[in-house]
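Consider the following input, taken from an annotated entry for alpha-1,2-Mannosidase (Tieghemiomyces parasiticus).
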Amino acid sequence: MRTVFCFGLLALALGTVGLDFANAAVAQPGGSATAQSRRDAVRETTRRAWQAYVNYAEGYDELQPLTGSGINKVVVTAIDSLDTLWMMDLKREFKQAVDMVRGVNFQRVSGDMSFFETGIRVLGGLLSAYELSGEPVLLTKATEIGNILIKAFDTPTGLPVARVNARGPVADSVNVVLAEIGSNQLEFAKLSEFTGNATYQEKSVRVFDILSRVRTREAGLIPVHLNAQTGQLNGDYITFGALGDSYYEYLLKYAILTGQRDGLAGRMYTTAINSMKLSLVVNSSSRPDRYFLAARSNGNLEPTMQHLTCFAPGMLSLGSQFLGDNDDFVVAQRLMQSCIAFYRESQTGLGPEAVRFDYGDSASALDTDSLDLSQSASLARNGYVVSSPSYILRPETIESLMYLYRKTGDTIYQDHGWDAYQAIEKHTRTNLAYSSIKDVNSNNDKDNHRNDMPSFFLAETLKYLYLLFSDSKFYPLNEYVFNTEAHPFRIQKRM
Ligand SMILES: *[C@@H]1O[C@H](CO)[C@@H](O)[C@H](O)[C@H]1NC(C)=O
Ligand SMILES: *[C@@H]1O[C@H](CO)[C@@H](O)[C@H](O)[C@H]1NC(C)=O
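Applying the prediction step yields:
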């Protein structure tokens, strides 16, 4: 799950210290001449977006790409970009980012921090860049923020609360969501590895133990709302979209990180995916060849799918590679086709935030009477209508293309990624940088921009494009596992 990052204020003093990375070994991306020229284009886009951030929003969390101003006061974009810059061999820019991190003092953050967003972006970004570059200040800062975040687990159940600050857990944030409590185990495992202090990993992995004992309607599918104080479930909403998504992703990736195919996390993943395939993967009534990953509420199917949910084909592909289930890969390919279609069938070539499709006559079926002419045409032709038309520079479809390309070697996935990249250049580029857009079906680029450039554009979207156009031996999937913000961690123990 990714919401807009909100961090609170931090006093910041930027220092510059000379660093010399010139001699550090950098992996070579390889690949065909076509792939190489595509990769060079992505690298140039990255350099441009980074430069705009440095020029107009240095010291802030994110750039506002229309007005050229910054929001908030922590260098989230810099931290989130570190490993992308490193992997693309943008050394000068990497050094700029490290210098910004040097000036951050997490103890002096005055507002509350989101446990989840800070964990995946800040802790994850620092640890991954530390592992790649060996730059000591990155581990110092990671430990500093890790020691604040770990206080979230100080509850009667051991489930972490949603917000923390330098003084401890925020008392009124005990209503938590599945993706938030279940997507920090990779980061804390790595922090334990680098510091030699096992406490981080133990506290974080206990969440999986607790969740393994929750009784659910369908094995392994856990409702997304919980209370961290009492451990009680609130409601019965099940989804692989926002609020649920990265919990399932982390079950798999924790198994991969620790090399335990048959450990608790791996077994929980397999159980959940088997239930998912039985009850949430459905085809549209008007386009039966098209498959969707739906949500479920009180036992009723909700015929919706979000852009966020398009991470699932990649997860299923990765899972089939490591746990060896070919049926999962068939489902991955089916869902991938729909995610590609969301892009190809829009006016801009970019995928919308969410769609609704028609499915049987379930209680929550799409109300076809309320559709206008073009929506009815879209439903008949494509099997879905756009229900939320924005594109906020999200990575998930490109991320999945990368995993399917890595598994199959089929360059069709690179071609789809290249189409998406060109659409990003054409429709999201502003005079300064790149922006979210309001409507993927708009013909009017001029009025379509929003004044934001989320940090995951640099952390994930551009990195996954770069990986998609690189050889499979470049940051290979049997050596690295990517956290849910695309920060690579070296696998601890190979399966
Ligand atoms: C390990 O980390 C925890 C959490 O920050 C801390 O309370 C504990 O003192 C640390 N242990 C050692 C030996 O440093
Ligand atoms: C669509 O789903 C139905 C019900 O599961 C199934 O019988 C049918 O074969 C599917 N159609 C296609 C084209 O896959």
